[in-house]
TrEMBL record:
It comes from the Bacteria. Gene3D superfamilies: P-loop containing nucleotide triphosphate hydrolases (3.40.50.300). InterPro entries: 26S_Proteasome_ATPase (IPR050221), AAA+_ATPase (IPR003593), P-loop_NTPase (IPR027417). One of its GO terms (molecular function) is ATP binding. Residues 190-206 have a biased composition (Polar residues). Keywords: ATP-binding, Nucleotide-binding. This is AAA+ ATPase domain-containing protein. It comes from Posidoniimonas corsicana.
C-alpha cells in the first residue's frame, strides 16, 4: 500500500500545495490572472503567490508533476484542475497534526454543547459557552456551524490552539444542534446522523470511538476496530476546517454500506415543513446521493469528464458541429433533434441553438413534430449541397470527437504506472492458469513497475498466455474517446477489436451524474500483434477516400499493454522496429503525422511486452535492452508440474486420465527419447484424445492406445534420408 511515512520528504513548496488543496476540499487549479502576473495555483479564495517573490508561484506550479508521481495529486475535471488522492488526504492530515503539535504552547478554547438546549427565544447568559444553532428548512448546517464558531472565536483572544466540540455518549448531533428543541438532557451513545438530499433517501450514521478525532475517523474510513460509545469532534481554528470536514463527511457517506463503522437506517417519513422560527432544520450534504453512490462504486476515481454544458466546453468549432449535424441528417434522411444528439453523444441543450441557426440559414427544415417540443428534420436543397461538400472534405459522421489536448490529459490521469498492483492482484489475474510461485515472484516487481519487459524462452511454455494475463492485474477500467480531432483531422480511436466496453449496472447513474458520453468506459486494453506487424502499423492510417485516420497500435494500447508476440519473426527488421521505439520508451512521448503533414505529440503510456523464443541479446543491443529493464525467462516445466498440468486439463476437458496411462505416456514418449516437456502439450494431447473418443463414440478415457494415436498426430518425426 502506498504510504507517506515521512512528511519531511516534501519540500516547503510541495507542502504548501497539499495544504492549500486540503483547505479547498481537496481541489485546486492552475490559472493565469492579472493579480499574479502569470500562472499560479488557486484554491477557492486562496492562491500560492508572493508579491515579493514572483518566482514562488512558478515553483509551486512546477511541484505538481512530482506530487502526481507520488500519487498525492491527480488530474480532476477541467484542463488545469487537480485534486488530492486518498494518499494526499492522508498526508494533509499528518501535516495538520504536525501543525497542531507545534502550537501546543498556545491556549485552546472549548465550545461545550453538552448542556440541555434551550429555544432560540431564551436569553443567553454572556458567560455561557453553549452553542445553539437554529436552522430554517434546507439551510446548510455546516454554514451555520462555521458562523457560530467564528462568532465565538471573535469574542475570544486568537490562539494557535484547537477548538473542541464535545458530544456526550449516545447524544444525537441533531438534538444537540437544536433540531428537536427538547428540554431533556441528552443521554448515552454518540452518533452523527446525516440525511441526504432526497427526502426518501437513507440516513447514514457514523459511530466514533471515545476521544477519537472526527477528522481522523472520516479520513480513515477503513478502521478495523468496531465502534464504541463516546465521541469528541476536534475542530482546528483554521478557516478550512469546515470544508475539510464536509469533504470527508461526503466520502464517509458514500462508503456507508461498506464500512464496518457505519450503518444505514431508513429515516421516518418526513412531515411537511412548518413555516416559522420553530421549523425543524434540515441537514444536507453537499453532494447528491447519486454522486455518493458512484464514489462507493469506485466509478469517480481518476478521470471522468463532465458532460459539456455549452458549445465552448465541447472544444469543437461551430462550423465543425454544423457540418457534423448535416452529415448525420443526410445519412439518416429524416431524424429528430433528440436522435441527432444521441448519435453524436452531445446534450440536446447544446445543439438546440445550432438547430435554430441552421433553420434560419435554411440548411435544415422541420418536417414533423416530435416528443417534448422536438422536431423531425430533413435537409433542404442548400443543406444537401453543404452536406455533400462536408462529406467530400471528411466523411466522418459518428460520435463527436474530443480535442487532442483532452485525450492527452485523460492518459496522464489514467496511466497504468499509478496503479502499482500487489501480490493479491497478481494471484487473482493468474488464478485460471498454472503459474509457479517462483514465476509470480519474478513477474510481480516487473508488473508493478509498469515498465517494459522481455518474456523469452522455448516455444509452447505459455509466454503469450502469461503476457495476456498481465493487464488483468490492473483492476481499474478507463475512459477512452470514440474519436479525436486535431487541426480539423479526425482520428478514429475506439476499436472493438482492441477495446472491450464495460457494461456497468451504474450506467444510469453515470448518465445522471453528467458523464460526457463522447467517452466510452473500457477494460484496460491488451493489444496483441504478432508476425503481421509492420512499420506502417505504428503510424496513423489515413484513408484517402473518407479522409479519416485510424489510431496506431501503440496509441490504442495507451493505459494498457502492448504485446509484441513472436518478436524477431516479423516482416520488419527487429533493429528497425526497436529504433522506432527508443525515444518513446525513454521520454514516454511519441510523434505521429497527420494527413495534412502536421506532426502531433501523443503519450506513450503503456506496458510494452516483447514475447520471443529467441535470446533477447540476439535481437537488440545494450542501448535498447537498457530501456527494457525486466527480462523474464519462461522455461520448460518440471516433471511434477507437467503431471499437475495433465490433471488440470483432464478435469477441464472432462477426460479420464488414469495414473497408469500417464506413466505409460511419460515412459514411452518422453523418457525413452529425451523429449522435453512443454506446458502446452498436456492440453493439446488431451484435446486430441477427447476428439478421438467423440468421433469413435467411446468413453473419454486416455488409454495407452489412444495416447499413442494422439502422440503420432501431434509430434512430427523427421526420418533420415
Amino acid at each position: 500500500m502506498h504510504t507517506i511515512a515521512d512528511t519531511e520528504s516534501l519540500n516547503p513548496v510541495e507542502r504548501a500545495v497539499v495544504e492549500l488543496a486540503a483547505a479547498n476540499r481537496g481541489a485546486f487549479e492552475v490559472s493565469s490572472r492579472s493579480d499574479t502576473k502569470g500562472p499560479a495555483i488557486r484554491g477557492g479564495k486562496k492562491k500560492l503567490f508572493k508579491p515579493d517573490d514572483l518566482a514562488y508561484a512558478r515553483r509551486c506550479c512546477d511541484a505538481i508533476p512530482r506530487l502526481i508521481e507520488l500519487q498525492l495529486v491527480r488530474h480532476a475535471s477541467g484542463k488545469n484542475g487537480y485534486e488530492l488522492t486518498n494518499f494526499g488526504w492522508q498526508l494533509s492530515r499528518k501535516l495538520s497534526q504536525q501543525s497542531r503539535a507545534a502550537s501546543l504552547a498556545g491556549s485552546s478554547m472549548s465550545i461545550d454543547v453538552t448542556q440541555p438546549i434551550t429555544s432560540a427565544n431564551t436569553p443567553q447568559q454572556e458567560e455561557r459557552p453553549n452553542a445553539t444553532l437554529n436552522l430554517a428548512p434546507g439551510e446548510s448546517l455546516l454554514d451555520q456551524l462555521e458562523e457560530r464558531v467564528a462568532e465565538e472565536t471573535a469574542d475570544a483572544q486568537p490562539t494557535p490552539g484547537n477548538q473542541s466540540l464535545s458530544i456526550r455518549p449516545g447524544e444525537l448531533a441533531r438534538e444537540i444542534l437544536g433540531e428537536s428543541g427538547g428540554d431533556q438532557p441528552p443521554q448515552g451513545g454518540a452518533t452523527l446522523n446525516l440525511s441526504s438530499e432526497a427526502p426518501s433517501s437513507d440516513n447514514a450514521s457514523l459511530s466514533f470511538r471515545p476521544g477519537e478525532s472526527a477528522r481522523d475517523l472520516l479520513r480513515e474510513s477503513d478502521a478495523e476496530l468496531p465502534p464504541r460509545d463516546g465521541a469528541t469532534l476536534n475542530l482546528s481554528s483554521e478557516d478550512d476546517v469546515f470544508d475539510q470536514l464536509q469533504q470527508k463527511v461526503d466520502a464517509a457517506t458514500a462508503e456507508a454500506d461498506a464500512s464496518p463503522n457505519m450503518t444505514v437506517a431508513p429515516p421516518p417519513k418526513p412531515a411537511a415543513p412548518a413555516v416559522g422560527a420553530d421549523s425543524a432544520p434540515t441537514w444536507r450534504t453537499s453532494k447528491s446521493k447519486d454522486a455518493d453512490l458512484l464514489s462507493s462504486l469506485g466509478l469517480n476515481e481518476g478521470f471522468r469528464p463532465e458532460e459539456p454544458r455549452t458549445l465552448e466546453e465541447t472544444g469543437l468549432s461551430i462550423a465543425f458541429i454544423d457540418d457534423l449535424v448535416l452529415k448525420v441528417v443526410q445519412n439518416a434522411g429524416s431524424i429528430s433533434g433528440r436522435e441527432i444528439a444521441e448519435h453524436v453523444c452531445l446534450p440536446l441543450a447544446v445543439l438546440e441553438d445550432r438547430f435554430a441557426e441552421m433553420r434560419k440559414r435554411r440548411t435544415i427544415t422541420p418536417t414533423a413534430s416530435a416528443m417534448l417540443g422536438d422536431h423531425v428534420y430533413q435537409l433542404t436543397d442548400e443543406g444537401r449541397q453543404r452536406a455533400a461538400a462536408a462529406m467530400r472534405e471528411c466523411a466522418y459522421a459518428g460520435v463527436a470527437p474530443v480535442p487532442l489536448d483532452d485525450y492527452v490529459d485523460s492518459v496522464q490521469a489514467q496511466t497504468i504506472r499509478t496503479e502499482k498492483p500487489k501480490r493479491p492482484q497478481l494471484e487473482k489475474a493468474f488464478s485460471d492458469i498454472n503459474v509457479e510461485p517462483e514465476m509470480l515472484a519474478q513477474l510481480g516487481p516487473a508488473i508493478s513497475a509498469g515498465k517494459g519487459m522481455f518474456i523469452y524462452g522455448p516455444p509452447g511454455n505459455g509466454k503469450t498466455t502469461v503476457a495476456q494475463r498481465i493487464t488483468k492485474c490492473f483492476g481499474q477500467n478507463i475512459l477512452v474517446p470514440h474519436a479525436i480531432v486535431e487541426d480539423g483531422q479526425i482520428i478514429k480511436f475506439f476499436d472493438p477489436s482492441c477495446h472491450e466496453p464495460v457494461q456497468s449496472k451504474a450506467g444510469s447513474l453515470l448518465k445522471a451524474s453528467e458523464h460526457d458520453r463522447r467517452w466510452v468506459r473500457i477494460r484496460r486494453p491488451t493489444v496483441v500483434v504478432g508476425g503481421e506487424l509492420t512499420m506502417d502499423s505504428l503510424e496513423l492510417k489515413h484513408d484517402h477516400l473518407s479522409h479519416v485516420s485510424e489510431a496506431s497500435l501503440q496509441l490504442k494500447s495507451n493505459c494498457g499493454s502492448l504485446l509484441i508476440d513472436d518478436f524477431g519473426r516479423q516482416r520488419v527488421n527487429p533493429t528497425e522496429l526497436l529504433n522506432r521505439w527508443i525515444i518513446p520508451l525513454e521520454n514516454r512521448i511519441d510523434y505521429l503525422g497527420l494527413a495534412n503533414g502536421k506532426k502531433i505529440e501523443v503519450p506513450f503510456e503503456q506496458l510494452i511486452i516483447f514475447s520471443t523464443n529467441l535470446d533477447p541479446t540476439d535481437l537488440a543491443d545494450d542501448a535498447f535492452l537498457r530501456r527494457i529493464p525486466f527480462k523474464i525467462e519462461v522455461g520448460a516445466p518440471s516433471r511434477d508440474e507437467f503431471i499437475k498440468l495433465f490433471g488440470i486439463f483432464a478435469k477441464k476437458l472432462k477426460v479420464d486420465c488414469p495414473q497408469e496411462s500417464l506413466d505409460y505416456l511419460l515412459a514411452t514418449h518422453y523418457d525413452s527419447c529425451d523429449r522435453p516437456f512443454r506446458r502446452c502439450q498436456a492440453r493439446d494431447l488431451l484435446d486430441q484424445v477427447a476428439h478421438y473418443c467423440e468421433y469413435n463414440e467411446l468413453e473419454p478415457t486416455a488409454v495407452p492406445e489412444i495416447l499413442d494415436h494422439a502422440v503420432n498426430n501431434y509430434f512430427t518425426v523427421m526420418a533420415d534420408e
